[in-house]
Design brief:
This protein is 29% helix and 28% strand. By secondary structure, it is an alpha+beta fold. Strands 1-2-4-3-11-12-10-9 form an eight-stranded antiparallel β-sheet, with helices on one face. It has a four-stranded antiparallel β-sheet with strand order 6-7-5-8, covered by helices on one side.
């Protein structure tokens, strides 16, 4: 197959370092697709240096220039497969669009039971293959008998939301047997509620800024940053409630950062789109959190561009996003627009 016809292609440009790649994605559009794809890039330990996103509502085209974080091994083929699995394709694009809209926001827990024999590196191989299968383990019981028999139980969430379908359970078990041997016994079922200490448990993916660390050092640094944090600038009352909510949600995606954040809204550049411009310091998961925040207020991204500036003391990011509401119109309030165009140039 011609690489240009692939849904996902990953290549190294001649002028780039060995740990930098260009990721191109071309596929039918779907609700929340940008959030899902940027989350995959984040999960693979990749930093987005440049980004370009465009869609006409039916087909989308994305180009990301990404860099491996320090200490993260390259898994480009697995990344290509994972991104490809997230994209709608072929004649089922419309069905995929509705499937994306109907995906549950919370994941039910499942119980994976594995019986085999002990050997060096077994647990490492097993947890790695679960990560490759796009499953998140939140609890485990590891049991090894004196005779070397292993009976392990893993409570996990399926990030693809395909369990308990037979083909998905078979895929995970085949991967497990591929690393542990064909004699391995493997089964997946819904986790009994009484097997979870805290009772019925459902996981909800959080924004990166909301992730909690139990490290004492992280707590000390968080308190120090909090003491130095500038007072947030309020959103002017003249801004329409819908657009104010969008700007506030986007700004909230990194509101706990000590660096200055500039957000501007422009409804004059395009008759069909509202342009949201953001300037801030770079950080882990920034683009994912921005797209996640916009999706949370039901706004559609039609075009976006991201650029990281490495000059100076720290890396700065400039992001321009063209957005529409569910009616494919710009976010517009004619009455308040006439009051004062300067009200939109808030900082």
């Amino acid at each position: 197959m011609d690489p240009d016809e692939d849904i996902v292609s990953i290549r190294r440009l001649p002028e780039d370092d060995l740990n930098v790649r260009e990721v191109r994605i071309s596929c039918p559009d779907a609700t929340g697709l940008g959030v899902d794809l940027t989350r995959v890039l984040l999960d693979f330990g990749l930093r987005i240096l440049q980004g370009d996103i465009s869609t006409d509502g039916k087909w989308c085209f994305m180009v990301f220039r990404v860099q491996l974080s320090s200490g993260v091994p390259p898994r480009w083929q697995l990344l290509r497969a994972r991104l490809g699995s997230m994209c709608p394709n072929g004649t089922a694009a419309l069905d995929a669009l509705w499937r994306w809209r109907s995906l549950p926001k919370e994941h039910p827990p499942f119980l994976l039971q594995v019986a085999s024999y002990d050997r060096q590196g077994m647990l490492h191989s097993l947890t790695h293959v679960l990560w490759e299968s796009d499953a998140t383990v939140f609890k485990a019981h590891i049991t090894t008998s004196p005779s070397g028999d292993v009976a392990d139980m893993f409570w996990l969430y399926d990030n693809r939301n395909e369990l308990p379908e037979h083909h998905r359970a078979l895929e995970i078990c085949d991967r497990v047997k591929g690393v542990l041997g064909p004699d391995t016994e493997c089964s997946i079922s819904l986790a009994p509620l009484d097997s979870i200490a805290e009772g019925p448990s459902l996981v909800r993916r959080k924004a990166c800024k909301d992730a909690v660390s139990f490290s004492n050092l992280r707590s000390i640094m968080t308190r120090r940053r909090t003491a130095e944090r500038p007072v947030p600038v309020p959103i002017p009352a003249e801004v329409s409630p819908r657009l104010a909510g969008a700007a506030a949600a986007a700004r909230d995606a990194w509101s706990d950062r000590p660096s200055a954040v500039t957000v501007s809204v422009d409804n004059e550049t395009s008759p069909s789109y509202t342009m949201l411009s953001l300037e801030c310091a770079d950080r882990k998961g920034l683009l994912y959190d921005i797209l996640r925040a916009l999706k949370g207020v039901d706004l559609r991204v039609a075009y976006g561009r991201l650029e990281v500036d490495e000059d100076g003391a720290g890396a700065g990011v400039t992001i321009d996003i063209f957005i529409q509401d569910n009616d494919l119109c710009r976010i517009n309030d004619p009455t308040r627009w006439r009051r004062s165009s300067a009200a939109w140039n808030w900082r």
